[in-house]
Amino acid sequence: MSPNLLKQKNVKSIIINNIEYFDVLDIKKNHQDLKIDVREMITIEGTKLIKAEHVTSLTDFDKTMRDIFKRNK
Prior knowledge:
Blueprint: H1 3-8, E1 13-16, E2 19-23, H2 24-30, E3 34-36, E4 42-44, E5 47-51, E6 55-57, H3 60-71
Antiparallel strand pairs: 1-2, 2-5, 3-6, 4-5
């Protein structure tokens, strides 16, 4: 996903060594329409971060699976 699209969605971000990272917790809490590649997360000072290229929109399959597991809880 493009960094500009994540910024339009108001996802929290930080720049470290000229690389822009986005806050994983903010994505999980406030942007349920997005998913992250957890293998690409980094942790800096206890904050989980990820590059925009490792964030994607949920597919229809993802949404169906999420709804199934929510009903079974």
